[in-house]
Amino acid sequence: MKKLIISLVLMSGYAHAQQETILTLPEAIAHALEHKAEAEKARLNIRRGDAQIAEVKASAYPNISFNSSTSYNPLLQQTVLPGEIFGVPGEQIKVSFGQKWTSSNMVQLTQVLFNQSVFTGLKAAQSTKEFYLINAELTEEQIIEKVANAYFQVYQAEQMLDNAESNFAITQQTVRIIKGLYDAGLARKIDYDRVVVAQNNLSSAVQQTSNAVALSENALKFIIGMPMSAEIELPEQSFEPAVLHSGQEDFSGRTELRLAEKQLELLEWQKKATEAEYYPTVALSANYGFLGQGEKMPWWNGQKNGVFWSDMASIGLNINVPIFNGFATKSRIELNKIEIEKAQADLKDTKLGLDLEFKNAITQLDNNRTMISMQSENVELAENVLSNTRSNYQHGLATLNDILDAERDLTEAKNNLTKAKLDYKLAEINLLKSQGKLTTLK
């Protein structure tokens, strides 16, 4: 019984701890960067860059191989020779050349002495790894942006739920007021029925908004790679407007720009690799091996069994000088130049897009800060209007329609304020993105 009680207490504490788990934005981003497939793929691409460099380096290292070939010749080729060779003038004699068994075992070494394409490939492979590193940074920024947007979508849903619950409580107060007046004979039954209908509608709206909160939380869990069964709670968020950035922004550090420039660099290396086809290649080769011939299987027989072994070796220098290939290399270089020009046009467009993104982010942030101020005033005014309308209704100076309209105006004002706050946070994220500072959210 004691063990059971202790277990129940621990389980209760664990469940309570789960409910009280607070997920901050940096924690959500860290979880996404560790568990999402996009981040893992980016890390694997960096490893891929290392493997590509190692692969290209292998072309500059000595290449050593061993070849073994054993054959059995049941019928030896015969050649007809003049009989004079054998002291038989006027005759033609058939002579068989070779042996029934032949075994050749050779070790071969090849070393590239000069190959311009290998040297170019080494430099291109290093640039490829740098491309993967920059792409990993871009992937990280994209994940941060997605997580931040989903994170504040949860805030909006929760705030909308708070608004719905607050409006439901206000309508409940109205129902109690109308009920009291109706019981005292100072209000009509139709007025009471109408506010009850409004209360029921708001109750349904609260349930729908609660479902929206659950859906937005699930979306956030998916984006950060968290199990759907996990319980999360977001801390209170401040929506105080930040100091706006002004002036001309320097985009040289933007990941998108560095990635485009690195892509252009890779295309330049590709062009140089094609130009390397004009260069000669020089390679050193060396061979050493043994040849066994005889009537029996050479592997385990020697001269006493009719098998004769002899070693052989050779050293060579191979030079290949390209002379003419039908202008194929020239055509490929022209294609490389076209791709480079296209990449330069994309780079120019990227710079223009970054400037537009920055200017729009500044404008949106400024507008949303103004909207927050205006909607805050609207909420305060709507609350005062509702309070005065209730008082006037009790004194016969306002109708029930006036009360319901005032409640709807208050609901709309609160929801508009919530949307303005969310738009402000999203504009803040866009500004950080345009400045290349999304990683500061981590």
From TrEMBL:
Residues 403-430 form a coiled coil. It holds the Pfam family OEP. GO terms for cellular component: cell outer membrane; efflux pump complex. It is found in: Cell outer membrane. InterPro entries: OMP_efflux, TolC-like. Belongs to the outer membrane factor (OMF) (TC 1.B.17) family. This is TolC family protein. It comes from Planobacterium oryzisoli. The lineage of its organism: Bacteria, Pseudomonadati, Bacteroidota, Flavobacteriia, Flavobacteriales.
